[in-house]
Design a protein that fits this description.
alpha+beta
């Protein structure tokens, strides 16, 4: 064969080999890119769902968390514990607990003496009444008897219905007289989860699933339980008479190329490949797991590879037959991808805005709603005493907090649409005084003192009263939590203000341990919190409100100890 012919044949085959190699590399890269994009979208969706479910769970607990504490201080409860054999006191306590249960919507409410015997209950006249039953084996009773708040999820010994039990000690000057327990049903939460296309479930510290959108997984364990765990479960009857917790029919692993765990399991008669995002709930000792279909990720990769292969073939054919046409096709494809990416970005921005608005409303409405509950309970307790003055004060508090909740909704809408904002000249001293009055019960419970600087000579600022009060409420509550472990004599919050040119600088300082150095730069980031049970929304909302008023907010540690949050507001002209 002539040398020139050999050279031509080699050159032609080499070009085809290079083209084939390029096509293969493009196909692999496109599949990998599509896989990573789908994974990021799935992980973002799982994190948002986990945050929403966690917020809903804490909302249920926060709604009823103070109910045993308030009930334990009612005279009918304490009188019955001191005189358990008095039929009149038993009847009064039964009717009181039934009335509280009906008004609050809790599943059940009952009173237990120091031996664990139920003396009165909201279901006293039902066939499944708790009265006369003994619950001393329950951990929530044992915790409350030691003076601690008890939290326990389990199957009811009397009704065999599961629920969350919250217990508070009935304390008096001569010690702990007994325990008040509220039982809450998490069934509405499970019903909401059942509408999810992929499994959502809660596990206890032993890996047992006790709440799930997949009913077949209930009371199954992630791994075989040891003899010690089984003995504890039988002793405390956490899940009723069950003494066997079969391993779950799944395989859980942590691949190096995935940002979350991989869960492979048969479900509804077919094999499922799931991405599992776990959120620890340390305050409850539980783990929330939200899953998403991992098969969609593999299918996205396969589709991208197929598309890349077809596009590559089209490009090669176009290059061979019509280069100009291939170039035009490439430009059209780029434009289409840019439009799709722009649409995705717009969709993500809309979702982020809706999520921030929902988080803001949920966070800011918590305070007036809790105050409404407390005022309503106070009014209920004062009604039998026929004291119109105190009853009117309680009802005035209900009206004030209802108006405040409506104002918060209106102001948040104005905060999102600045054209609806309602700014007015405000005195900082009046803001300090009103916020301190709103938080006085909480400050008294935490044994915390507030010291206010004299601000009468300072000019007024221009702002929205409700939103600025919420900023101060959030900062003061954070300071109270920060000083929980401090000696009582050092629990002091300082409120001060000074003028700095056209701005007024307001400071909220505490005498707690301060903010860790590595966390200072992140305190205003959404969903970042130094508290195990915090959601990380409060400081982000405060920062956004101050910026909307034309000011700035910063956080720092003080040399004398403690943290200081400072923000600026424009002086009213």
């Amino acid at each position: 064969m002539p040398l020139n012919l050999l050279r031509f044949t080699f050159l032609r085959h080499w070009r085809w080999a290079l083209a084939a190699l390029l096509v293969a590399l493009l196909t692999v890269a496109a599949g990998r890119w599509a896989e990573q994009q789908e994974l990021r979208a799935r992980m973002a969706s799982l994190r948002q769902a986990a945050d929403a479910y966690t917020l809903a769970l804490h909302g249920i607990i926060d709604k009823y968390g103070d109910l045993p504490y308030v009930t334990a201080r009612h005279p009918a409860v304490q009188d019955l514990l001191r005189h358990p054999d008095d039929p009149r006191l038993v009847q009064a306590a039964d009717h009181y607990l039934a009335d509280v249960q009906q008004r609050t919507g809790a599943e059940e409410l009952y009173l237990v003496d120091r031996q664990g015997l139920t003396l009165a209950a909201s279901n006293w006249n039902d066939a499944s009444s708790f009265v006369g039953h003994n619950y001393r084996q329950r951990p929530y009773f044992q915790d409350a008897l030691q003076g601690r708040r008890g939290l326990f999820y389990g199957v009811g010994l009397t009704t065999t219905q599961p629920g969350l039990f919250i217990a508070e000690p009935v304390a008096a000057q001569d010690g702990i007289l007994g325990v008040v327990v509220v039982k809450l049903s998490l069934a509405p939460l499970a019903q909401a989860w059942s509408r999810s296309a992929d499994p959502v479930f809660l596990q206890d510290a032993r890996g047992i699933i006790f709440l799930s959108s997949v009913s077949a997984w209930l009371y199954h364990a992630e791994h075989p339980l040891g003899a010690g765990d089984l003995d504890w479960l039988r002793e405390h009857s956490q899940y009723g008479a069950r003494d066997h917790f079969a391993p779950l029919p799944w395989r859980l692993s942590q691949p190096a190329d995935l940002p979350a765990q991989r869960l492979q399991t048969p479900l509804d008669g077919r094999a499922r490949d799931l991405l599992a995002w776990q959120t620890p709930l340390p305050a409850l000792g539980w783990t929330l797991t939200v899953t998403g279909d991992l098969g969609e990720v593999w299918r996205a990769r396969e589709k991208a590879q197929l598309i890349a292969l077809l596009v590559s073939a089209a490009l090669l054919l176009g290059l061979l037959y019509w280069r100009q046409r291939a170039k035009r096709h490439a430009e059209q494809r780029r434009a289409r991808l840019e439009r799709e990416q722009e649409q995705k970005l717009q969709h993500s921005a809309r979702l982020a805005s809706v999520g921030e608005m929902a988080s803001t409303l949920a966070h800011e409405l918590n305070q007036p709603l809790m105050a409404l509950s407390n005022f309503a309970l106070a009014a209920q307790q004062l009604a039998p005493r026929q004291d119109p003055t105190l009853l009117k004060e309680a009802l005035d508090g209900v009206l004030e907090q209802s108006t405040r909740a409506a104002d918060i909704v209106r102001r948040v809408r104005a905060f999102i649409n600045p054209q609806r904002a309602s700014y007015e000249p405000l005195a900082v001293g009046e803001l300090f005084a009103h916020v301190q009055a709103l938080l006085q019960p909480e400050l008294q419970r935490a044994q915390t003192r507030v010291v206010r600087q004299d601000t009468d000579t300072l000019p007024r600022v221009r702002g929205d009263r409700i939103l600025l009060e919420q900023v101060l409420i959030n900062l003061i509550q954070n300071a109270v939590h920060a000083m929980q472990a401090s000696p009582i004599g050092q629990r002091r919050i300082e409120l001060s203000a000074c003028q700095a040119g056209p701005m007024l600088e307001v400071m909220v300082a505490d005498h707690g341990p301060g903010i860790p150095a590595e966390a200072l730069a992140q305190v205003f980031q959404p969903f970042f919190s130094t508290r195990p049970d915090g959601l990380g929304l409060g400081l982000k909302i405060c920062h956004t409100i101050i910026e909307a008023h034309g000011g700035q907010m910063r956080a720092a540690n003080r040399r004398q100890g403690g943290a200081a949050f400072t923000f600026t507001l424009p002086v009213h002209p």
